[in-house]
TrEMBL record:
Signal peptide: none annotated. It comes from the Eukaryota. InterPro entries: CD2/SLAM_rcpt, Ig-like_dom_sf, Ig-like_fold. It is found in: Membrane. The chain crosses the membrane at residues 233-253. This is Immunoglobulin V-set domain-containing protein. PANTHER family: IMMUNOGLOBULIN V-SET DOMAIN-CONTAINING PROTEIN, SIGNALING LYMPHOCYTIC ACTIVATION MOLECULE. Keywords: Glycoprotein, Membrane, Signal, Transmembrane, Transmembrane helix. Its main location: membrane. Residues 265-281 have a biased composition (Low complexity). Residues 262-286 are annotated as: Disordered. GO terms for cellular component: membrane. It comes from Fundulus heteroclitus (Killifish).
Amino acid sequence: MKEVLTFLPHTVSEMAQIVTFCSHLLLVFNLQIQGSTSVNHVFVQTGKDLILNLTEAEIAQNSKLWLWQFNGKGLVTFSAPSPPTVEEPYTGRIEVLEKKYNVKLKNLQKSDSGIYTAKTVLPTEKTLIEYNITAQDPVSSVDLTVNLTSNTSSSIFTVTCRAGNSFISSTLRCENRTCGESRGVTTSGSYLRIYQLNESITCNHSNQVSFIKATKKIEDYCPPDVAVNTATIVGMSATAAALVAVGIVFGVFRIRKRKRSPNTVYEVPQPNPQQNPYENPAEIAPAHSPTSTYALVQFPHRPEQHNDASSCLTPQPETIYAQVNRAEKTNSRPAKATR
């Protein structure tokens, strides 16, 4: 029992120490949360100016002293009601703006990259805002080259984009006029990118503050007859089909027109209006069209001769007449028989 009583006070003392330690940790954690703020990452081109903003609402009304720091060292000190004070190393490079909480950093260089912090010192120390500033040089120019790799029907080229000691490459195929995209990072931290935009190949060299690009036309390397456009094929096929259809319709129209039109009638020869004395007036009919005419020659009827004395005379030549009959056809011209 005595041993138990000795153990209990020792245990309670340890528990009290543990509780006190945890309370201190919780208090420190709360203070860190209250004093911490998010970091704003800013990139600026070397030689340019940058304004660090701090609003009045971010400063407590009872604050007596606050300042801007660079990597923990003071830049500008504000102590009401005195005017702000720029620390000696930064005189001429820092300008306090009309709003007494904002400052302008002039002609930034790479050596000016770092953490810029605004904080209150009195009555309590508290971080108000923080900037992580990176000064970068503008990117250099790029060299875009296109070299033939395979001289086949597809014509494969190697596209190379070079910036300083860094380069990336891609492949251009003329068969379908496509250039694969490629990306890379240079030794200075800038970015190289090859991509295709419409009928051009572009190499882009960029960082957070600048960019520059070079462009090549695909048609300068891929002949037009190598890459056949699908739309062109469809258009040519449609045009050919339309021409064939028009030709067929025109041919059918001509054939039908010929079938429906009457036979061509040329000038019909007209008979001489002077009547032939040997024609039979009863057989003469108006001739509307040329007819074929045939002649029938026969001996005329005459009375029988008796053998008498008067008939012993010298026989006279017989008279032959021609009888003209018109044929059944209506398109033939009547012919005249002459004796």
